[in-house]
Amino acid sequence: MPDRPVDRPASSWLVAGVFAVLYIATCARVVQGGDSPEFLTVAAAGGVAHPSGYPLFSLLARALILVVPFGSAAWKVSVLSALLAAATLGVLHRAVLRLTDDGVAALLAAAALGCSVLFWRWSVVPEVLSGSTLTVALVVLAAARIALGDEGPRAGGFLGLAFATGIAHHHTAILMAPLLVWAGVAAWPRPWTPAGVAATCAATIGGALAGLLPYLTFMIPGGAWRWGDTESFSGLVHHFLRADYGTFATGQEDRGIAWWVQPRLYVEGIGRQLLGLPALLGLAGFGVAIAKAEDGRRRGFALALLASWLVAGPLFVSRFDLPAEGYYRVVVERFHSFPTTIYCVAVGFGAAWFVKLKFWSRPALPMVVLVANLVLAGLLAGPQASMRGSTVLDDFLRNTLGALEPNAVLFTRGDSFNFGCVYAQEVLDLRRDVACIYGPMVGHDWYRERLLERHPDLTLLLDGSPMQLPELITANAETRPVYLSSRIPLLDPEVAGVIPPTWPAAGTLLRAASPGERPPLPKAVEAALLEDWEGFVLNSRLADAAELDESLESTAWDHYAQVWIVLASGFEVMDDPAGAARCRDRARELSPWLLQAPAARP
Questions:
Q1: Which of 47, 88, 303, 346 is placed for a possible disulfide with 285 were both Cys, Cβ 3.0 to 4.6 Å?
Q2: Residue in 484, 571, 588 with CA at minimum distance from that of residue 526
Q3: SS3 436
Q4: Mean residue pLDDT across the chain
Q5: How far is CA 143 from CA 78, 108, 192, 220, 581, in A?
Q6: What is the pLDDT of residue 541?
Q7: How far apart, in whole angstroms, are the C-alpha atoms of residue 278 and residue 115?
């Protein structure tokens, strides 16, 4: 690391600008899977997202929707993700440039991350993840300034503000704790005096409190979707601490998978994402930064950076007790970009060392190798990461809601389906007559109040206690046409034997019989399904089944396929093997992986 770091902010702005253009050009136009529908609903129609709430992202998204006069809400929030990702790369470039005084190293560090398929893909959808990587870059920049000699209240204030705005965006910022603690102490002015230490600590705390101010907006009433009761201070603290999930829990059930499975996947993923030399230069970079540090302050920075990467990467992902393939692989890989942003700082250190090796006969040769690596990575990443034409979930929501009877009750399964229905009704204004219910949430008072405000005739309580899913289905089938996700009996087998008879209907769902109603024969069900399918719109379909399996939108295709699997069982009961084979062929075409592992996804 140099004694006198350069200060060329224009080059960092240029890096951010180039990637902003690339990312915006490949942004999603419509809602995507996962948490995207909920974030879009809060951004477009107001309210509070699931814990921890993500207030800073919600405020920025809401502002962009109100200010930009063109484009869909989904596209605008995708653009916000793109801008935050581009800012991450600009700040990362600036931090590495200051630490190494090497423009090539800074460019490689930023572009290696920017050309990662994983980083790119999560930077062009309506999600909070690119904002969490910006937190990494800002904390690294604040700590880098301290490593280079900045100290006192100004340094502490910037550090506290960078960290707390990250917390207000996504709680994964806490994983930067080793670097944060080191920088917080290193910012104390030398020689240490009580007054100097107190002033720096006060500035750090003040910056942190300022960064948390967006949380106060949760106490403002209103909004189309509000998770929990955040209008009281106790409710706000409950939400901030993620108490509904368990503050320190990852929200995953015990699946008996070895702790090392996900860390191994992450380490292997670095090689895939940072194509070629950057993956190796990161490993070298940590060693170079520690071994060749010119003073204790810079060595402390390098050690704290390595510790933060280990905490945010291998250690954190080891808490996800999930399989390493298919849908669940994507669930965990969403969090890989956070530690990889830290890793790319080390890539910069490694690149600065690499270009100065005496091995090279010509000084320009290593730069040519690195630039060629970046160009190749960018050319490969762009087509793979683009979400511009992905409409799987949007098609599914429109097809499903559009096929329902008037005033139906729909029991959903999974985040994409549940929040997708909220988004479709509150933002797209589709089928507000349908009561969409996510059974596990009926136990929350605030959720029942929301449902009853819109649909006062629903039955949600039995003797004053919240009903369980089987009771909910049975009770409401007496007064309304009831449909449920075709995945519910498969993934909740205890439900199947205690609800009214069901049969495939509305193209993607199961219809529950009302009292005294008899299910139709399989051939009549098949004819009705085919009629529903004639009205469906399918604008997006990935040709590669393996690639589709590893996406959050794969559950939509599961719903399309599952009704045909259920119908195949009906034909088998009627001793009609030809009909069963016909239905299974349709299911296999829609979701090839579902017949292989029917309970693989929620």
A1: 346
A2: 571
A3: strand
A4: 90
A5: 30, 20, 19, 35, 63
A6: 57
A7: 11
Q: Is the pLDDT of residue 281 over 70?
A: yes
- 131 within 8 A of 84, measured Cβ to Cβ: yes
Q: Dump pLDDT digits (tens) for 508-547.
A: 999 999 988 999 999 999 999 999 999 998 886 544 555 5
Distance CA 321, CA 317 (A): 9
* Runs of H (alpha helix) within 168-193: 177-186
User: Given the structure tokens 């160009």, which residue do they identify?
Assistant: 375
- Supply the Cα-derived Rg of the chain in whole angstroms: 26
What's the Cα-to-Cα distance from 106 to each of 2, 345, 473, rounded to whole Å? Answer: 14, 8, 58
Q: Looking at this protein, which amino acid is placed at residue 518?
A: R
- 549/551 Cα distance (integer angstroms): 6
What is the b/e burial string over 325-341, where b = at least 16 CB atoms within 10 angstroms of the residue's CB?
ebbbbbbbbbbbbbbbb
Report the candidate in 125, 175, 154, 150 with the shortest Cα–Cα distance to residue 23: 125
Q: Per the omega criterion (within 30 degrees of 0), is the bond before 515 cis?
A: no
Contact 230, 214 (CB under 8 A): no
**Residue whose token pair is 């097809």:** 399
**How many CB atoms within 10 Å of residue 243?**
13
Do 52 and 249 contact (CB within 8 A), yes or no?
no
- Specify burial of residue 280 (Cβ count, 10 A radius: 0-12, 13-18, 19+): middle
3-state secondary structure at position 357:
coil
- Hey, what amino acid is at 287? G
Give one DSSP letter per residue of 102-171, joined into a string.
-HHHHHHHHHHHHT-HHHHHTTSSS-SHHHHHHHHHHHHHHHHHHHTT--SHHHHHHHHHHHHHHHTT-G
Burial of 152 from C-beta contacts in 10 A (0-12 / 13-18 / 19+) = middle
Tell me which DSSP letter residue 405 carries: P
- Using CA atoms, how far apart are residues 400 and 421, in angstroms rounded to an integer? 10
Query: Cβ(123)–Cβ(57) under 8 Å?
Result: no
54-96 tens-digit pLDDT: 999 999 999 999 999 999 999 999 999 999 999 999 999 999 9
DSSP for 477-541, written as a single string: TTTS-EEEETTHHHH-HHHHTTS--EEEETTTEEEEPPTTPPPPPHHHHHHHHHHHHHT------
- Find residue 437's DSSP bridge partners: 411
- The two structure tokens encoding residue 462: 């039995």
In residues, how long is the chain? 602
Contact (CB, 8 A) for 427 and 41: yes
In angstroms, rounded to a whole number, what is the distance separating the alpha carbons of residues 579 and 342? 55
- What residue spans define the domains of the chain? 9-217+254-385, 392-590
Q: What CA–CA distance (Å, rounded) separates 476 from 203?
A: 57
